[in-house]
Amino acid sequence: MSSSLAERLRAIVGEAYVVTDADVLDGRSVDYTGRYRGKASALVRPGSADEVAAVLRECRESGVCVTVQGGRTSLVAGTVPEHDDVLLSTERLTQVGDVDLVERRVRVGAGVTAAAVQRAAAAAGLLFGVDLAARDSATVGGMASTNAGGLRTVRYGNMGEQVLGLDIALPDGSVVHRHSQVRADNTGYDLASLFIGAEGTLGVITGLDLRLHPAPAHRVTAVCGFRELDALVTAGRALRDTESIAALELVDGRAATLAAEHLDIPVPTGEAWLLLIELAGETDLTERLAEALEDAELAGEPAVGVDGTAQQRLWQVRECTAEVVGLFGPPLKFDVSLPLSAIPSFAADSTALVAEHAPDAIPVLFGHIGEGNLHLNVLRCGAEQEAHLYAAMMNLIAAHGGNVSSEHGVGSRKRAYLSMARTEEDIAAMRTIKAAFDPTGYLNPAVLFD
């Protein structure tokens, strides 16, 4: 980056918010898993939508690539720069507006974390529908850009279903404000939805209107053990249609065992597969849970939590998996969406595939079983092993009817596999849209497309 561009950027955002220190840039150029690294020329932290737009305009005119960063929790190297990029961080866009209790919505900056939105909603007696284990780091702008799902998707849907309005800084330096105070607004193109899941390739989300939900008065949580994954999937298929379902999470028994050994987190059962279930509603749902599990092929009695402390203890079994998979160095991650019927065979075949390419590695499978959205993490897998295993695993996913990406996005790690899930015509249409918004291709150039 030229010194003149650096000066112009400082004039836009302030001296303190343009960083060119090599150590800082090095730390911001590695992905969340620690496996993938790039190189950046500057870190710029705008404080408003107009500043974001002005930064984009200057970079575009100077022919400098820009990589957008939020909480940097991408698991597909979506925030790793490849072209000595300017890193544009949304971390200062942290305004949280007043909660509208009547319309059940709140306007926030793109750099606000999921946890901060949850706190604002809870203080108003409401609930934000998307929850992630990375809630303290993941920002809502990034979550919208990847259409994140998370732990409560089975009840509330993905991030896109929570977005009522957006502010977007476009690649040409203009700002689009797409908001409506009414619930039914079918005026023209649904432009805002185009940026949901676009992974920052079409523009930078700077602000969001988010839908909030009534907080249920009662919850009941259970962790059930299963000897066979087929039995768990059958139970999950029945439970996801239960009216009061709030969460339905698969946990690999191997992860639970590692959590007990290394993190001192109690495991309710020693079975090969665990299913975390949560029901939520306006009445006590303990009996409904028992009825829902009557026909399930459980291995022993489920562990049930009715009060908050017991529920939190059971949730630890699921939420600690992110920490568990990092115990052996950066894990190799696969975000996979599968038909429910294919999950048991994929689990067996993927385990065999890992053993073939990386005999010392440990495969750990967990995720959102209600949607068939699973996260396969391969522990103790070196770079040389990854080179052969990654392509083989992606082919296996396709062979089981799976998709390239479920909620983590394509990023740069999966861009070579886009054709597994999209036809040539589909990809060409997406490229046409990209070219219309960003004809020089300078914004998030490493993401989505080869």
UniProtKB/TrEMBL annotation:
The entry's keywords: FAD, Flavoprotein, Oxidoreductase
Family: Belongs to the FAD-binding oxidoreductase/transferase type 4 family.
Names of the cofactor(s): FAD
Name of this chain's protein: Oxidoreductase
Organism: Mycolicibacterium aromaticivorans JS19b1 = JCM 16368
Any one GO molecular-function label of the UniProt entry: FAD binding
Start and end residues of each FAD-binding PCMH-type domain: 36-215
GO BP annotation list: respiratory electron transport chain
Protein's UniProt keywords contain Oxidoreductase: yes
